[in-house]
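ok trying again, last paste got cut off:
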Amino acid sequence: MKWTPIVKRRKHVPWGYKPSEEDPRVLIPIDEHLDLLEQAKEMRSHHSLRELATWLTAVTGSPISHQGLKLRFEREDQNLASKAEAEQEYILSKIVKDNWDKLQRERARLGSNKQDTSEPKESFF
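nice, full thing came through this time. structure:
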């Protein structure tokens, strides 16, 4: 997988990244570590977090605790859930706008004198 640099948001550097030599606020991915982390995610239903953390530490030489691994997985799961919610809200708003436009065209076609020119509300959920 192709990993991209990220901006440092906290004091702690996340496992699988290292500070850039040019700008310490930019974190450079360590591809091997992040690829192994993805494998660990796939294996977490069959192995304990302690086993996965021990395996990652042994293979990479970079220590990670079971608690650090748990927090990392939880944070990534939260990020995925937030992205999914935002995408779903965008799709729903697009459907509402498309239906609103269809309604306006249908009113115009039928010659309704009371054509509503107001825009649909952005968020009605």
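cool. Strands lie at 6-7, 17-19, 26-29. The two ends are 37 Å apart (CA to CA).
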